[in-house]
Amino acid sequence: MLRFFSLFILLALTFNSNADIKEKIIQNLKNTKNLDFKFEQNVNGKIENGNCTIEYPKKIFCEYLQSNNKILVSNGRSLVIKTKTSYYRYPLNKTPLNFILDKSFLIEKIYNLNERIVDNNLVNFTILHNENKINIFFDIETYNLIGWQNTDIYQNFNITFLSSIRKNRLLKKNLFKLPSQS
């Protein structure tokens, strides 16, 4: 009987601890208007690095380092990827970034998902939505978004890690203006 009671207390504490982590992640997201960060992106084994700024909802600006002046920009409706030699424009709602950049969507999904603790320092949620599978990761101590895994619109497996995260900074007014094709 004592063992059963001890096991019950241990399970209750573990559940409350995980529920507390989930609630702190949700609260942190609610309090985040924007964030900027360094990133490392692995797309089918090809690694690229750069800097990004996200402004909720659904805006992102990324500059890739050593990559033909590549930028990625979303104004909340369209997503543009531009290099010196190419220009691609997509409706944002046709890409997995549509979900990753929507904190209301993330919060709603996290409320209803079970978290998975990875290596005692990451919290993972797996979102299945409209034939998309997105794994999002949060730091277990800061509760910050620190990465995601998804399959992009070309069916490439994409892993993105965030570092040097800063939140709620003053942003340039036209940062999320889509670049012209020329």
Entry summary:
Helices cover 23% and strands 43% of the residues.
What does the secondary structure layout of this molecule look like, with pairings?
Elements: H1 2-30, E1 34-43, E2 46-55, E3 59-64, E4 71-75, E5 78-82, E6 87-91, H2 97-100, H3 103-111, E7 116-118, E8 122-129, E9 132-139, E10 145-151, E11 157-167
Antiparallel strand pairs: 1-2, 1-11, 2-3, 3-4, 4-5, 5-6, 7-8, 8-9, 9-10, 10-11
Q: What gross morphology would you assign?
A: globular
Helix content: 10-25%
Going by CATH, the architecture would be Clam
The biggest beta sheet, please?
11 strands, antiparallel
Give me the side-by-side strand order of the main sheet.
Answer: 6-5-4-3-2-1-11-10-9-8-7
Number of strands: 11
Q: Poorly predicted ranges (pLDDT <50, ≥5 residues)?
A: 1-16
- The helix tally amounts to 3
Note the gap between the termini: 75 Å
**Fraction in beta strands:** 35-45%
What do we call the CATH homologous superfamily? Lipoprotein localisation LolA/LolB/LppX
Q: What's the level 1 CATH class?
A: Mainly Beta
Structural class: alpha+beta
How many domain modules? 1
Give me the strand/helix succession.
HEEEEEEHHEEEEE
- Stated plainly, the CATH topology is called outer membrane lipoprotein receptor (LolB), chain A
Mean pLDDT: 89
List the main descriptive attributes of the protein structure presented here.
eleven-stranded antiparallel β-sheet; 3 helices; alpha+beta; single chain; 11 strands
